[in-house]
């Protein structure tokens, strides 16, 4: 293979399993890794990768890099989100874009379900209180007694529905751009779980718990803000393990501090690492964009992104090129 330079901006990479690094090195690629060992700013990525042929990227905004590096040939995303990749600009510059859409699914699903139980049963509050000598024995509503709203029935959303079926919720309300009645019916009808595809506003007004599973696009930016929170039941909870920017964080803060909703669990933020005022509140669980952070899913993502780089520079067809639909989603 001809000599090519690759920058790995995402961190950690190859930390828990060295296989992705090994296969890159065995392919004869010159590898540069993130020297700061943290999430890089867009300008830092542009500087570190200014003369590379390819990048294995995390969630950093890659626009400055593409504008600075005229020789960049491929972006291989570790993960599924594409809001940080300016796809039209990539198309204009003839930069190939690959991602790992299937690798993260079950890790995100399991975290989502775990946050549902932790949030509604007030596990974190009990943990904090017990450490300071309290013993309130907080009470909450079971998932099996809840109406649950799912916004987005793609890879993650559909598997959340599948696992939720084991809890036998009272009803599942679903919103998705596509008609997936048959797929959902095949999961829920045999368990006699009532479900309905509805508009988002019906979910906001009727669900005890709302879980978001949509990508961040021009159409979902600030999908939930003050107007939507005003429709929520006061006892309702919100979970976002999808993407930062889908929920207006300022409006979420106001909704929580004014107790217009009961609580929230947020894994993703507009700016990461997150340092905003949501950390002041007790009725929220904040995690560190760790939906994909299981050992197996990290390996699948890292190996998948590395293999796409190797395929590209070997002249082979990519297994997971970003489909045209995703390019259209970014058009405002």
Quick one: biggest sheet? 7 strands, parallel
- Beta-strand percent range: 5-15%
Order of strands, widest sheet: 8-7-6-9-10-11-12
Global geometry: globular
Q: How much helix is in the residues?
A: 25-40%
How many strand units? 12
Helix-strand category: alpha/beta
Kindly state the mean pLDDT as a whole number? 96
What's the Cα radius of gyration?
Answer: 21 Å
- From the N-terminal CA to the C-terminal CA, the straight-line distance is 40 Å
List SSEs in N-to-C order: EHEHEHEHEHHEHEHEHEHEHEEHH
Number of helices: 13
Could you give a short description of this structure?
By secondary structure, the protein is of the alpha/beta class. The protein has helices spanning 19-26, 42-48, 63-68, 87-92, 105-120, 123-131, 155-164, 181-188, 200-206, 226-229, 249-257, 295-313, 324-329; strands at residues 5-8, 30-33, 54-57, 74-77, 96-98, 147-151, 171-175, 194-197, 209-212, 237-240, 263-266, 284-286.
